[in-house]
């Protein structure tokens, strides 16, 4: 079932057609960000780039849209995708894509992170599409499997709501620890060398994440929400985004708590966010790349695919997202040599398809016929 859709291969002109549509769409949406920066871009993220950078990116995006469309026309008998790509490129030019200039932005009370969504999507595609194309784990799996659009919507929503998530996940940290005087801890952390501070930030957040994650696996009602993340049968770079709002809110609130209260520097915070954004995508990717001895220090796709394993006897392992030794400490480490799980997903769950249905479903309904927790199943 899951390999119904034929995987694209280099030389057929289908990949170039898809890339042309992808870049054309990003360029067109990018133009909207130039026109309505107050509403569609976020203050925090605007500080990361300059007007000149995004103007050049826009121009490069339009040129690349046409180049990939041209390659697709030359290689593929079916011209449909190339034509769509060209139309998107032309529309972007009509809306001023070539001459557009970044302008000063007024502050308004709300905005959505469309700029962050475009740039993150672009970076992820540049990094992970070649990795999955040339070093795949499952060689038959297509990027455009049955549920890729749902996963893309999850990716999109979590990026657009970046400010909202930022604000609400900070609230519990402030509520619980705001009254404490942690001045001495802040001074101690600020005096640490950068790499030590970064390691500490990664370690403490992963420790908090570990227990939040394990809690979601060991509580019947919470497992309904987290099992959505485990429902994916086609592990790939987009699949990790399939995470219910409640799951993101709770797990992120708990794991970010140390970052909010212990006084890590802005640099550490930003490097942490960048690292986690890329690494979390990597560990879900459909790639056999195994990073040699590094797999004992940092989690790899093989490691996290075992966490998503569909065989009940291996449920309830590998909760750590960054450091496998945290699982070692708490007895949940599982990495059998070079072996990979036969399949990923959940054997006895039935979820409705689509983002909106999955958003409401777990509040009132149970996706499992047999209401056993992963750990209970693994002991059967
Ligand atoms: Zn899990
Ligand atoms: Zn996962």
TrEMBL record:
Keyword Calcium included in the entry's annotation: no
Domain of life: Bacteria
Transmembrane regions listed in the UniProt entry: 15-37, 57-75, 82-100, 112-131, 152-168, 188-208, 259-282
GO terms, biological process: lipid biosynthetic process
Keywords, ordered alphabetically: Membrane, Transmembrane, Transmembrane helix
Keyword NADP: no
Domain Fatty acid hydroxylase: 199-332
Gene Ontology MF terms in the entry: iron ion binding; oxidoreductase activity
Subcellular localization: Membrane
One Gene Ontology CC term in the entry: membrane
Name the record gives this protein: Fatty acid hydroxylase superfamily protein
